[in-house]
Amino acid sequence: MNEQQRKESSQIRQGTPADVKSDQDNLNRIKDKTSEDFMKYFETTYQPPSLRKAQRRRKEDVKVHYDFTIPEDLDNIGQGRKYMIRTYGCQMNEHDTEVMAGIFEEMGYESTNDTKEADIILLNTCAIRENAENKVFGEIGHLKPLKLENPNLIIGVCGCMSQEESVVNRILKKHPFIDLIFGTHNIHRLPQLVKEAMFGKEMVIDVWSKEGDIIENLPRSRKGKIKGWVNIMYGCDKFCTYCIVPYTRGKERSRLPEDIIQEVRHLAAQGYKEITLLGQNVNAYGKDLDLNYGLGDLMDELRDIDIPRIRFTTSHPRDFDDRLIEVLAKGGNMLDHIHLPVQSGNSDILKIMGRKYSREEYLELVRKIRKAMPDATLTTDIIVGFPNETAEQFEDTMSLVEEVGFEAAYTFIYSARDGTPAARMKDNISMDEKKDRLQRLNKLVNDQAAEAMKQYEGEVVEVLVEGESKKNSEVLAGYTKRNKMVNFTGPRSSIGTIVKVKINKAKTWSLDGVMVEETIEVK
Ligand code: 5AD
Ligand code: SF4
């Protein structure tokens, strides 16, 4: 089959890729307008693109399934074959990769990191910024010669990018050697999709624009035995105007508390020491369940489970309620670290971003958290160079970073994402200016990080030991309760345990130390 025939015979079999076009029609009229026009429109007539749809969908039941099985004719299909998954992006994607790895292994596949050895290669992609997408397209280009060498090799693209119509079309047009494209809601169909890709002649495309049900009993091949991820909810209904996630991951769907608690218990019984609860908007947990039960309630139940550390990510300031603060303040296995993306320190920019809080409201929340948890470390995400962000508005971000005293921040230059409202704004800020702002912001964050680290010199901290340091196998590495990386000398037998380490040197992003006796008082 030549490329043209292949293209023509390819078809999208299940629904269509992210159906965002119609939602965007009402936004066309603000195309290429200034931020003032945008602001006015935003305050008067703007409706978040799919929120109404999402709210309608809320009324439809999300079904929970406990009956995932691999069909008998497929559970041996991977015998003697190897899979490889390359993961881009966030922890949610990393965890999806663990699920897909689990499915492959139940089908008899073995894992490999060598593209030459692999019988199937999946790229689990991220769409959050343009450079994430460019990386994936670069990798697709690199894989082409492998496919020419070995026509039986299956190459698939999954994850957030495959939920974008433009990406699917680009692959169809420019990379017809790709065998398989499937979306974030279709992971449970992996066995069938692999079979179709193996035995069919067409490109297999399985992308649902509507979010799926919750499938509870998917297998997971977890990456480590010390730290584990647990999804507590899927999707996001916030529709920040710059963000593609609500389109690629669908509407918010929470897992039932008992299913989450059971998974955490199971991980505790297996000896895991740290759990990270995952959700794109993790503290909106429970809002869709009508159980009057939120993340605070869930954390309160998880506190009683014999697992030393429980984290959660990523939270939205708007949903950070008093109940959650009250439970976190109880300490124990609740950690002294809160990642609380602020995105900007200027209330007008926050408004155009659709963040639903002002600078003052964010600062008030920080005050509340600090009052309840005086030792907590705060970290954040920030976008610089949002369309038409003025120099003064950027200065507000700088001053907020100082005022809160963030000890780390993921900082990004705004990247226009097709189909999002902000992508329609004209922008009068040059890329050079944006880069300059990013540099200044990073310098401030680095200085604050280094300053925060200094206080640990001479102190003793508790470290969950994860393994050898990446740079030096003689040295062990792990994290404190406040998420500070510690490199230290100590016995290998301490890997997987929590030990006390005396810090002798603070760097900007890590601490150096020596493991000490149990008797020293822990800071
Ligand atoms: N451009 C730049 N950064 C973005 N983020 C999300 N969307 C964009 C975008 N279009 C950042 C936000 C978010 C983090 C995961 O990625 O800061 O919190
Ligand atoms: Fe994106 Fe987070 Fe906003 Fe949801 S809350 S739209 S994931 S930035």
Count of DSSP-assigned helices: 16
Termini separation comes to: 67 Å
Fraction of residues in helices? 25-40%
In order across it, which strands form the biggest sheet?
1-8-7-6-5-3-4
Which term fits the overall shape? globular
CATH topological fold name of the largest domain: pyruvate-formate lyase- activating enzyme
Number of domains: 3
CATH class term of the largest domain: Alpha Beta
Q: What is the CA-based Rg, rounded? A: 24 Å
Beta content comes to: 15-25%
Total number of β-strand segments? Answer: 22
CATH homologous superfamily descriptor of the largest domain: tm_1862 like domain
Could you say what the CATH architecture of the largest domain is?
Alpha-Beta Horseshoe
User: What is the structural class?
Assistant: alpha/beta
- Average residue-wise pLDDT: 89
Uncertain stretches? 1-33, 46-52, 519-523
Biased composition (Basic and acidic residues): 1-10, 20-29
Region (Disordered): 1-29
GO molecular function, one term: tRNA-2-methylthio-N(6)-dimethylallyladenosine(37) synthase activity
Keywords: 4Fe-4S, Cytoplasm, Iron, Iron-sulfur, Metal-binding, S-adenosyl-L-methionine, Transferase, tRNA processing
What does this 3D model show about the protein?
This protein is an alpha/beta fold and 523 residues long. The protein has three domains: 187 residues, Rossmann fold (3-Layer(aba) Sandwich); 228 residues, tm_1862 like domain (pyruvate-formate lyase- activating enzyme, Alpha-Beta Horseshoe); 56 residues, Nucleic acid-binding proteins (OB fold (Dihydrolipoamide Acetyltransferase, E2P), Beta Barrel). It contains 16 helices and 22 strands. Helix 11 links the parallel strand 13 and strand 14. Helix 11 runs parallel beside helix 12 and helix 15 runs parallel beside helix 16. It is globular. The relative contact order is 0.09. The N terminus and C terminus are likely disordered. Bound molecules: 5'-deoxyadenosine and iron/sulfur cluster. The site of 5'-deoxyadenosine has 12 residues, from strand 16. Its cofactor is [4Fe-4S] cluster. It is an enzyme of class 2 (transferase). Its EC number is 2.8.4.3.
